[in-house]
Amino acid sequence: MPDQRTDLRLRVVQSRFQNAFFHELAEAIVDEATRLGVPADVVTSVVDTEPDDVFVLLPTHEYAVLEGGQFLEDPRLAKRCIGITAEQPSSSHFDTNVYYGHKLGAVFDFSTLSVKRYRAQGIAAEHLQFGWTPTWDEFDANADAHELDVLFMGCATPRREHALSKIGRQLWSRRSRLILSDNAAPNTGDHAAFVTGERKRKLLAGSKVLVNIHQADEPYFEWLRAAEAAHCGAVMLSETSLHTEPFRHDEHLVFSALSSLPHALAALLEDPDRLKALRRNAYELIREHPFSAGVEKLLSVARDLRKTHDGHRLRLGPSRTQPFRQQITPAWERETDSVDAVRQAIREIRLDIIDLRRRVSTDPAIDPTPVIDHRTPAWDRRTPRVSVIMALYNHEPYVVEALESAASGTYSDLEIIVVDDCSNDGSNATVRKWMDKSPHVPVTLVRHPVNRGLPRSRNEAFRHARGELVFVLDSDNAIVPTGLERLVAAIDADPEASFAYGVLQRFDSTGPVGLMGVWPWEPWRLRYGNYIDAMALIKHEALEELEGYTLDRRLHGWEDYELWCRVAESGGHAAHVQTIVGRYRQSATSMLSLTNISQDAGFDAVRESCPRLMSGALELQVDALGDWLSRVRGEREARDVWLSNWEAQNA
User: Fold this and answer.
1) Bridge-partner residues for 83, per DSSP?
2) 230, 301, 393, 413: which could form a disulfide with 282 (CB 3.0–4.6 Å)?
C-alpha cells in the first residue's frame, strides 16, 4: 500500500550540466516515490530546503564536479543526503564517491560488487536494485520485425573499439549501429553520438541484440544496461561478468568471453527461437523485480535521516554558471620544445628526400602528361552514379583486394578510376591483369609517366570521374561489401550533406586492432586534429567547388584532413554512418604512420586556409545560436503558462 505519511519530501538533486542518463534515473525515482505516496521532485537549480526535505545526489561524484560541494562539505546538509552511485570500483570516480561517502547520511549503489567495495572502505552502503518501472516499458511480446540486428551503445574506449573491430564481419553483414559517445565531457542531451529517453527505448525495442563490452578489464556487470534492454525486448549479449544476479546466462541473456564474441553473436542471430525465449524470459524477470521495491528501501533510509536532522531552512544555488566543457588545448597553442623542433626538421628532410628522388628519377625527355593506359569494355556502355577513385603507388600486394572490394559489393552502380603514380613495382601490370579478368566492370587505368604524389593523383582521378558521387579508396585499403550501399543511403537521406563517411575497421597483419571514424560530424573536433579518414563518399559538385585536394607541401599526408576543414569553413557538413563501412590497413608504411612526425607545419597551413574554424569562431556562432534558442524556448514556455492561467481564470 502507498505510504500516506507526508513528514518526508524526497528531493533528487541534479546538475543542469550532467549526463542525461542520470536525469532519466532521477525521473524514475521520483515517479516511483510519488506512486508510493511520498512527495518527490527533481531539483536542478536553486534549492529552498524545508525541515522535511531529504536529498538524493545522483550521482555523487558528478554533482560535486559540475556544481561544487555545498551539499557534501556542509555537515548540516551532508547528513540529510543520500548518495546514489553507479561507478565501477576500479575507476577514479569510485574513489571520489568513497571520499564523499564518509560525509553523507547514506550511500546506495546499483551493483552488489560496488556495495562490497564500499563496505570494505567502512561505508555502510546499501544495494539499490533497479527493476521494472512502467515509464521505461517498451516490451512488445508479438514483435517480430526489428529495424536492427545488432546495436552497441556506450562511451568509446580503446578496449571497446578493439573488441568491436573483432566482430566487424558480423556488423557489416547485418543491420547494425554503433553509437559511441565521448565521455570527456558530460552528454547533457540527445545528439548523434548519444541517445537518451524515448528515442533510446525505441531504438532498443527495434534491435534484436544489444552488445555489451566492459569499459575496462574489470568484469563489472552493467546492470542498468541489462535492465533497459529487458524493458524493451533487446537480447543482451555481454562480455563475461561477475555479480549478475538475478540475470542468468542463456536464460535471460548471453555471456561470452571477448575471444568468442564473434561466434556467440553469429549463433544468436541465426537462432530466432532462442532470441524470442531470451527476450521473453528477461522481461518476465524484470517484472518480478519492480523498481518500487528498491525505492521503498530508499525511502525507509530517508525517513531515518529525517528523524535525525534538526530541519535547517537554507537557500542554496549552484556554484557553476557555465556548462562544463572538455578542456583541450589545440596543438598549435601548446608550448614547443627542442624535441618539437627536431621532429619538424626530420619531417622537412623527409619531404626534401621525396622531392629529390622525384627529380633524380625523372628523365627530362619524358612528357609528364598523364595518359590513359587501359580501359575495360564496360567503360563506354554506361555512366554510373558512383565513381571510385584510387591513387596507386607501389601497392602490388594489396591493390587487387582493394579493387575486388569495390567491384564485388552490394552496390553495383559504379565505375573505378585508378591513377598509377609511376609505380616501380608490378602494381600497373597487376591492375591491367585484373581489368582483363573483369571486363564487366567500368574501369579506367591512368598512368603518370613521372611520380607526382598523392594529391595530384587523386585530383587526376577526379578529373576522369563521371559519377554524381565520388568515393575515395586508397589502394591498400578496402570497402566492406555493404559499405558503398550504406554511404549512398546516407547521402540520399541528407541531401544537403557535402560528403558521407562511416566507421572503419583498423587492421594489421595480426587481424582487426580497432576502429576509426567513430564520431559524427562535429566541426569543433577538427580544430584538434583529424578524426575522419580519406575513405569517404563526396558529392562531385562539392569536390569541384572546393577545387579538389590541396597541393601545399606542408600538408603532405594531411590532404584529406584539410579538405574536411574546408568543408566546415564553407558551412558544409557530412553525414555519418554508424557502422563499419571500410577497412583501414595499419602498417609502418601507412600514411597515418608517416605523416605525423611533426604536426606544426600542417596546423599552420590549415589555420591559413580555414581561419574561422581553427580560431573557434564557428563554435562561438553555434553557442550563440544555442543560447538564442534557449531564450526563445524559455519565453515560449512562459507565454504558454500565462495563457493557460488566463484561460482558466476567464473560462
Assistant:
1) 57, 107
2) 230
